[in-house]
Amino acid sequence: MGFWYGNKTVDKMHRTEGDIVHSVNHQMTYLRTLDSAVTFNTVAVETLSDKVKDMLDSNKWNDETDSNSLVELHFVQSSIFTSVRQLEFAILELRTLSKEVLISLDSTMTGKLSMNFIPPVLLKNILKNVTSYFPDGYTL
C-alpha cells in the first residue's frame, strides 16, 4: 500500500483512523453515562412512587376532627405534596435526557455530527486531519 500512496499518506490515514476510533469510543462512553443516568432516574421515580403509595396506604382516613388528627393530616398531605413534586421533577429530567438522546441519535443517523457526541475540540482536530488530505488550494 505504501507503494501506491506513499508512506506519509499511509501514516496520515492510520492517524485519522485512530482519531475516528477515539471519537466512536467517546460516543459510546457518552451513551453509557446517559444510560446510567436514565437508570438512576427510573429507580428514583419508582422509589418515590412507592413512598407516595405507602403514605397513602398507611394513613387511615378517619372522620375524627380533633386537632391532633388535623395536624397529622396536614403533615401527611405536605409529605405527599413534596413526594409528588420530586416525582414530577425526576420524570421531567428523564424526559429531557431521553429527548437529548433521541435528537443526538437522529442527527447521527442522518450523517451529521451531534455536539453531544463529539466535543468541539475533538471535531476541530478531526477536521484538521481531514484537510491535510486536500490538494493544494482546497479548504473547508
Word description of this protein:
This protein is an all-alpha fold and 140 residues long. The chain has one domain. 79% of the residues lie in helices and 0% in strands. The chain has 4 helices and no strands. The longest helix is centred in the N-terminal third of the chain and has 52 residues, at 7-58.
Main β sheet profile: none
Please report which band the strand proportion falls in: under 5%, 5-15%, 15-25%, 25-35%, 35-45% or over 45%: under 5%
Determine the fraction of residues in helical runs and give it as a percent range: over 70%
- The ordered H/E elements are HHHH
Q: How many domains is the backbone divided into? A: 1
The value of Rg in angstroms is 27 Å
Mean pLDDT: 76
Q: Report how far apart the termini are.
A: 27 Å
Number of E strands:
0
Rough shape?
rod-shaped
Taking pLDDT < 50 over at least 5 consecutive residues as the criterion, the unreliable ranges are none
Structural class: mainly alpha
Treating each run of at least 4 consecutive H or I residues as one helix, how many helices? 4
Write the layout of secondary structure elements.
Layout: H1 2-5, H2 7-58, H3 67-109, H4 120-131
Helix pairs in contact: 2-3, 2-4
List keywords for this structure.
mainly alpha; 0% strand; 140 residues; single chain
Quick recap:
This protein is mainly alpha-helical. It has helices spanning 2-5, 7-58, 67-109, 120-131.
